[in-house]
Specification:
- With 138 residues, the protein is an alpha/beta fold.
- Helices cover 60% and strands 15% of the residues.
- It has a single domain (2-135), classed as Rossmann fold (3-Layer(aba) Sandwich), CATH 3.40.50.
- The chain has helices spanning 8-17, 21-25, 35-44, 48-63, 72-87, 95-110, 119-128, and strands at residues 2-6, 29-34, 67-68, 112-116, 133-135.
- Strands 3-2-1-4-5 form a 5-stranded parallel beta sheet.
- It is globular.
- 28% of the residues are buried.
């Protein structure tokens, strides 16, 4: 079965608008939650209700041991990838780009595909560091 890590925009579309139901609930993927995505979702949860919803969601991933975070090797590769992007003229001062590199390198480290609905940064990252990427329509 194919392993998947969803970018934050996939989660937000699903949680807010019910988008991407086939990805989120279908049987063809083994889903993992990136700790970087977890952080981004938590940072955007401004209401108590949203925080409780995330608590439940994160709890499910924790119980099935499918939360993955960057290891020392992942951080090292992220530094190398960011250096390559900078040499190619891509600004790396945005936290979102650094986060996306962490997501991409973590995904590859477990053999997972990154699913996103905003491919611009991920496509540039994929040119500097090859990983499985699927761009999903909004």
């Amino acid at each position: 079965m194919k392993k998947a890590i969803f970018d934050t925009n996939i989660w937000v579309g699903w949680l807010r608008d019910g988008l991407h139901e086939e990805l989120m609930a279908g049987r063809e993927l083994t889903r993992y939650l990136s700790t970087v995505v977890q952080m981004e979702l938590r940072a955007g949860a401004f209401t108590a209700r949203a925080g409780r919803a995330l608590d439940g969601l994160f709890g499910v991933y924790h119980r099935v041991n499918r939360i993955v975070g960057p290891s020392l090797q992942v951080f090292d590769q992220c530094g190398r990838t960011l250096k390559t992007l900078r040499r190619r003229g891509r600004g790396i001062r945005r936290a979102s780009l650094v986060n996306d590199v962490l997501i991409a390198v973590t995904a590859r480290s477990i053999g997972a595909t990154v699913f996103t609905s905003d491919g611009s940064d991920f496509e540039a990252i994929n040119e500097a560091f090859s990983f499985d990427l699927e761009i999903v329509a909004h």
